[in-house]
Structures are given as structure tokens and as C-alpha cells.
Amino acid sequence: MSASAPWFGQEAAWQEWTAAIASGRMHHAWLLSGPKGLGKRSFARAAAAELVRLPGAPVPDPLAHPDIHLLEHLPANDDEARKKAEGKPYQTRRNITVDQVRAMIRRLATKPTLGERRAVVVDPADDLEKSAVNALLKALEEPPAGTYFLLVTHQPGRLLPTIRSRCRVLRFAALSEDGLDAVLLREAPHASAAARAAAIAAAQGSPGMALDFVEHDLGAIHQLMTRILQSGDGDFALRGALAEEIGARPARDRQLAALELARSVLVRELGGASRARQQRIIAAHAALARLSTQAPTYNFDPGLLIMEIGGLLASAAMPREAAG
Fold first, then answer.
1. Helix (H) or strand (E) holding 185
2. Residue 321 — very low, low, confident or very high, per pLDDT cuts 50/70/90?
3. Cis (ω within 30 of 0) for the bond into 319?
4. For range 283-305, the mean pLDDT
5. Cα–Cα distance measured from residue 186 to residue 42, given in angstroms and rounded to the nearest whole number
6. Cβ proximity of 199 and 184 under 8 Å
7. Angle at 101 between CA 97 and CA 107, to 5 degrees
8. Beta strand 147-153 with 68-72: parallel, antiparallel or unpaired?
9. Using CA atoms, how far apart are residues 311 and 287, in angstroms rounded to an integer?
10. What is the dihedral of CA 284, 287, 293, 294, to 10 degrees?
11. Tell me: the pLDDT tens digits for 118-127?
12. Considering only Cβ atoms within 10 Å of each terminal Cβ, which end of the chain, N or C, has fewer?
């Protein structure tokens, strides 16, 4: 299958989805479950388009079809909305709001526009406000005829059990190294073999993460993070080099990619570590996870943030605790 397919590397999930459509006994709610960067967003849109496609008709554009409803993060404010309209990078709100869910439910009061089916994609369901979760739950409990829900989730454990119990789960698998390399060769043909190798090593099977690492030129940062984790940084020299490498005014996307890279470096180190060191790695990873949830909306100083990342890696270093 071509690496350009929206479900590349997720053939089993796609086969399960299309078989369910063909069966005539389609479950009304689905959880698209797996770590970030595995292609769940593209898959959800392609799956929604396949669901509403009329017999004999071409697959429609999921962003323009009247029977595909997308619930995702809105722009943070009017200025960011203008950036989105102009095709520029923009900041989003932290959560998907209850007003968005209620507006969607009002639209479900009518029949589908073009056929007998419609799809609601919630991306990601992890970021629904508490009141939005409750509103969505009511729709899942009494779904209108012909309405099917696709809930993208990176952390299904964060969802209410009552949400999970009403959904059929589609699990997304990590890609092989060959699969990741195929994606990088297609999407980032400019990347050197060394850059691709570093991205593949750090991405944990996630094509999205691998592309982030290549796009943001994180090869040197990856090397520094690995050195800190291996030998510590008692004199702060490596952390200083890390701050210099990321730059004085890095884009927020680059900071977020560096955070994800640090988490990946820790995860790769976990398997071969002693039990005592595993505890330090887990503690450092938990702290990085908290930073990752805060970084998209908090105005962190980039230099202080990268030093904090370096310090957490140093706290898990071998052969001794070397936070410095």
C-alpha cells in the first residue's frame, strides 16, 4: 500500500472499518486509540468520507461534506482565527468546548443532507471540557438514526468509562522502521540519511513524531539529550549547549517537538535500565508529560524550558543521579 494513503501502516484498522460499513450492522460510536502521531486524524477524516460516500460516487472531501461534522480545537481568539483563514500557523484554545458539542447536537436534529449517514469526528476527545463530555455522552446514549461518532483519543484512560463503554475500539499500531523511513522519504526527501535515522530512533514508531523531528532539525538536540541521559551534566555544559542549539527565540512548535523528543529518549532508555533507574526515568517522564500539557498555552521562557528539560534528563542519567 502506498505511503501516501491516509491509513498507511494501519491497514488492519482500515479493513475493520470498511468491513463494518459493508456489514450493515455498523456500531454507532468508535474510539480511534493510540499514541500521538500514528495518523489517527487523517484516518478519521478518510473513514468519515468513506462512511458517507454514496454508492458509485467518488470519495468526498471530508472538510467540505455537509454530513461530516468535525469537532476540534478552535482558534484561541479573533487574531488567531484570521491567521487560520489566511493559511498561517495559529494558536488554538486548550479544550473543545461544550458550546461546540451543543451546536453539533442541534445539527443532528435534522436528517443527513445527501444520504442516509453522517459522521461526527471529535479530535481529540481527550481535550473535551467536562461539561462537553457530559453533553456528548447524551448523544452517544441516544444517537440519531444514521449518525456515527469517531472519537480520536491519544489517552483513552482519560475518558469517562461511560464514554468508553459505548464505543468500539480501533487500535492504531506503531510503524516499523521501514515504514517510518518510507514516510520520511516521501514527506521529507530533503532530509539526510543521518537525520532520518535519528528521527526513526526517537519516534517510537510514530510517523508524525518522526516528521516533527526532521522538520524542526532536532538531530543535534537528540544527540545532546542522549549524552545527558547517558552521562549526566554535572557542570551544566550540555544543558548550555542544548539551549544554544534550540535558539533564543524558537517557534513554539519546535519547543513542543523538543519536549516530545525528550519523552521519547526516556522511553527508549527504560527497557534496559535497572529497577532503581527505571523509577527515576518514570519520574522524569511524568514531569515532562506535565510540561507538555502546559507548554501549548503557558508562556514559558524558551531558555528556561530547555534547561528544565535538560535537568529532568540529567536526573535520570546513568550511572548516577547527575542533575547537577
1. helix 177-187
2. very low
3. yes
4. 87
5. 16
6. yes
7. 145
8. unpaired
9. 11
10. -130
11. 999 999 999 9
12. N
Residue 318 C-alpha cell reads as: 546513568
Cβ atoms of residues 129 and 96 within 8 Å: yes
Give the whole-angstrom CA distance, residue 63 versus residue 66: 9
Q: Specify whether the CB–CB gap between 269 and 255 falls below 8 A.
A: no
Residue 6 binned pLDDT confidence (cut-offs 50, 70, 90): low
Dist CA 238 CA 243 (whole Å): 9
Which candidate, 262, 249, 265, 254, places its Cα nearest to that of 217? 254
Nearest-CA neighbor of 279 among 292, 260, 290, 266? 266
CATH architecture for segment(s) 11-171: 3-Layer(aba) Sandwich (3.40)
Three-state DSSP class for residue 220: helix
Identify whether the C-beta of residue 228 lies closer than 8 Å to the C-beta of residue 192: no
Whole-number pLDDT of residue 322: 42
Element (H, E) at 290: helix 275-294
Res. 5: pLDDT tops 70:
no
Instruction: Give 54's DSSP letter.
Output: P
User: Counting every residue, how long is the chain?
Assistant: 324
Of the candidates 141, 174, 236, the residue with the CA atom closest to the CA atom of residue 33? 174
Question: What count of other Cβ atoms lies within 10 Å of the Cβ of residue 94?
Answer: 14
